[in-house]
Design brief:
The complex is a heterodimer of chains A (297) and B (460). The model of chain A has no long low-confidence stretch (mean pLDDT 91). In chain A, the strands form three sheets. A two-stranded antiparallel sheet of chain A has the order 1-2. A two-stranded antiparallel sheet of chain A has the order 3-4. Chain A has a two-stranded antiparallel sheet with strand order 5-6. Chain A is built from seven helices and six strands; from the N terminus they run H-H-H-E-E-E-E-E-E-H-H-H-H. Chain A is mainly α and 297 residues long. A four-stranded antiparallel β-sheet of chain B has the order 3-4-5-6. The longest helix of chain B has 58 residues, at 128-185. The radius of gyration of chain B is 38 Å and the shape is rod-shaped. The two termini of chain B are 26 Å apart. The model of chain B has no long low-confidence stretch (mean pLDDT 92). In chain B, 62% of the residues lie in helices and 10% in strands. Classes of the chains: A mainly alpha (297), B alpha+beta (460). At the A-B interface, helix 1, helix 2, strand 2 and strand 5 of A face helix 2, helix 3, helix 9, helix 10 and helix 11 of B.
């Protein structure tokens, strides 16, 4: 095959262009740390990386929901603990009052304490977190148990629940139906029971006090059941945090392995590309120096 | 019988022939970098003896010819055409890919931002700030759709502009080829001018092949008729058939030759540009519109199924997208939600209770619904599929262009091995003719000496 000046020049230029392009690509990979800058760099990997990135965003979203649910459930748990303690105080009070009905001063003190317990329980059940009343169901902007001069107003919330999604298939209730806790299926609410207790102590009505005590037992059982439910939800949320964190790390690692470079390998490849380019420059220079014309006299 | 004087004539013709050979080598060296130049070979012919006592009439330069391989030239033209098409496609699609935005920073990110914002409303359904953030995220998503759609439309216009420029260049080239044909018909084979015109004709055809896939048919008068791949004549002898540009109602150009409208099958840059403008970009635009339409209609339907902060039935989240065609360019937020106080109109509730977040949760759940690509892809996946398709198109065109470059280089090397100028070879030719010239000059001197001797005898 005849080797011409044109083909020597073209091949040299082509070789230099190829090695220079490779060097630029490797340098860019090292300087940016990324293998994929646009989808055409590796369309299949870019698509998988996009899916991994979207997964990471969704998992972050669920993680935030889990944190929020966790915070709210802990508040509810604490409030229900306070309510149980209040009911316990009320039961103790009822027993003490039943044995001291003949002392007017003590009767009045017990009656006032029953009212005080009612108010503190109503206050606990009116707990709000970031403006949301956690015992109002889905009517979360309404104070569920407003205390008035006549006692505690009827429940202002509803029977719904505000729920938060903690993954694609599971959700956790983060508000509760206050009425189901305060009254449930009983004829009167916890607050009415305490009002009844107060009236019964003043009226020295031992039978009514005993009826109130039965009602308090029932309320105690309802609140304890509600607290168990919250505890179960918290127990579900805790491992979910760890699981989401692990999945997010996995998705991020998948994205990084697709989009980013192994820096050590990239630097080695860059050095190799640089050496190849230098060799190509030297080779092209060497082969263009030799000509028969140099030997003509 | 040859005499000394006729031998002087033989030597003089030999000197002339070798000077011509040196001239040809010089011409080849002079054109070593001239595009399209085919190396010339001097024709030297031994002359017959005048009579039986003569060794011969010496040598004469009878002309020259350029070394060409018609098959190779034709093959090369086809590869040039394919390469130019791939390069044009890669260039335009690369531009489109940039217009789609960086991975993770375009519609994909805005979609996730919107679902994040819906989730924030679900977390705190009565928060006006969370509701405003969701409305702003919707507006940002709509703006990104419009921006990408606008980029695709701009790409269509850009390609159309390139098509118009390329058409002008094609018409210039066909006119030039027709003019060269005319000149060639007035020259004779073996003349230096004929070979120069043939080189110019080949060069012009190669340039034309970058724009369209052409087929050249040799004419008896030495010229070439040029046809498009489909058989439509572009040049017939000295007559060029111009490509016509007509504007359609959409403002885009239609190309035709003699009434026949050209399609992407014409090959070369023109073919690639027509195909990209008429098939590829509209397909991308259609996918974007379908996605935008699905985003708007699905989110609107869910939003309308809910209740706002006042308990009123929800209204459309996005302004009605209308038909699928052009939905991406029209996507925008509902004015009522964007307006001050629009936060209260965000329909987070399913029951009507202010603290109910059920509808906000259902809005978030849309993210995972497979609404697109025949029910196989979520919104995010449909976007990733579009980006991947564009990226795949760019990568395929670049790979094809790289392979085409190699093929063209190989064919150019083959062509050069036949038609190209080798400086070493020309240096050898120079030596050959120089030495030949020197030897003939010595013969001429020897004859002159003999004539001197002869003249001396006469004078003596």
């Amino acid at each position: 095959m005849r080797i011409t000046f044109g083909s020597l020049y073209r091949n040299g230029l082509s070789d230099l262009g190829r090695t220079a392009a490779d060097l630029v690509l490797r340098e860019r990979e090292v300087s940016s740390g990324r293998r994929i800058h646009v989808a055409s760099d590796d369309p299949a990997a870019a698509r998988l990386a996009a899916a991994a990135r979207d997964d990471t965003r969704a998992l972050d979203r669920y993680s935030r929901a889990v944190d929020s649910a966790d915070a709210r459930l802990r508040v509810i748990d604490a409030v229900l603990g306070d309510v149980i303690e209040g009911i316990s105080r009320a039961k103790t009070l009822a027993v003490a009052a039943a044995s001291a009905l003949d002392d007017p001063a003590r009767r009045e003190a017990y009656a006032l304490e029953a009212t005080s317990i009612r108010d503190s329980l109503a206050s606990a059940m009116n707990t709000s977190l970031r403006g949301v009343y956690v015992f109002s169901g889905t009517r979360a902007t309404e104070v569920p148990f407003r205390v008035t001069g006549d006692g505690v107003a009827p429940y202002a919330g509803d029977s719904g629940h505000q729920r938060l999604d903690v993954d694609g298939t599971r959700s956790v209730a983060v508000t509760m139906d206050g009425s189901a806790i305060a009254q449930g299926t009983d004829p009167v609410s916890l607050f009415t029971l305490l009002d009844m207790l107060s009236r019964a102590i003043r009226a020295e009505d031992r039978a009514e006090i005993e009826a109130v005590m039965r009602g308090l037992e029932s309320a105690d059982a309802r609140v304890a059941a509600a607290q168990s439910q919250v505890g179960a939800a918290l127990a579900e949320v805790e491992p979910q945090k760890a699981r989401l964190s692990m999945l997010a790390r996995s998705a991020e690692a998948r994205r990084a392995s697709l989009e980013e470079v192994d820096l050590a390998a990239a630097i080695a490849a860059m050095n190799q590309a640089q050496a190849a380019h230098e060799a190509a420059v030297a080779a092209v220079g060497a082969r263009s120096r030799v000509s028969l014309l140099d030997y003509l006299q | 019988m040859a005499n000394l004087f006729s031998m002087l004539g033989v030597s003089a013709r030999a000197l002339e022939a070798h000077r011509f050979g040196l001239d040809v080598a010089g011409q080849n060296i002079a054109n070593v970098n001239t595009p399209g130049y085919s190396r010339r070979i001097a024709h030297l012919q031994a002359l017959a003896p005048l009579d039986r006592w003569s060794a011969g009439g010496g040598v004469a330069a009878t002309g020259l010819h350029a070394v060409r391989d018609t098959f190779l030239t034709h093959h090369l033209r086809g590869e040039i055409s394919r390469l130019a098409g791939h390069q044009a496609g890669a260039q335009v699609l690369g531009m489109v890919e940039v217009g789609l935005g960086a991975p993770g920073a375009s519609i994909d990110a805005k979609l996730e931002d919107l679902f994040d914002a819906f989730a924030a409303v679900a977390d705190d359904p009565t928060s006006l700030a969370a509701r405003r953030t969701a409305i702003e995220a919707g507006a940002a998503l709509a703006a990104t759709f419009r921006e990408v759609s606008s980029q695709l439309s701009a790409s269509v216009r850009e390609v159309d502009g390139r098509l118009r420029v390329a058409t002008t260049q094609v018409n210039d080239l066909t006119r030039r080829i027709a003019a060269l044909n005319q000149e060639l018909s007035a020259t004779r084979p073996g003349e230096a001018r004929t070979e120069q015109l043939r080189d110019e004709l080949d060069l012009a055809l190669n340039q034309l092949a970058q724009f369209v896939d052409v087929h050249a048919v040799a004419r008896e008068d030495g010229g070439l008729d040029v046809e498009l791949a489909g058989g439509l004549a572009l040049v017939l002898g000295g007559t060029a058939q111009a490509l016509s540009l007509d504007s359609t109602p959409t403002g885009l150009a239609t190309l035709s030759v003699d009434g026949a409208v050209l399609s992407g099958s014409v090959g070369g840059t023109l073919g690639a540009l027509i195909k990209t403008r008429d098939d590829v970009l509209p397909s991308y635009q259609a996918q974007l519109d379908t996605l935008a339409h699905a985003v708007a209609t699905r989110i609107n339907a869910q939003h309308e199924a809910g209740h706002d902060l006042t308990g009123a039935t929800g209204e459309a989240f996005f302004a009605s997208p209308g038909a699928v065609d052009g939905a991406g360019s029209r996507l925008s937020m509902s004015d009522a939600l964007l307006a001050p106080g629009g936060e209260a109109r965000f329909a987070a509730s399913a029951s009507g209770a202010a603290g109910d977040n059920e509808n906000a949760r259902r809005l978030v759940a849309i993210r995972d619904q497979r609404l697109l690509l025949d029910g196989t892809a979520t919104m995010g996946e449909a976007w990733a599929a579009l980006v991947s398709e564009v990226g795949g198109g760019v990568a395929a065109a670049r790979d094809a262009a790289a392979a085409g470059t190699d093929a063209v280089d190989q064919l150019l090397n083959l062509r050069d091995s036949i038609s190209g100028v080798s400086l070493d070879e020309e240096a050898a030719e120079m030596m050959r003719f120089q030495r030949g010239y020197e030897a003939n000059a010595r013969v001429f001197g020897a004859i002159d000496d003999m004539l001197d001797v002869l003249m001396g005898l006469v004078r003596g």
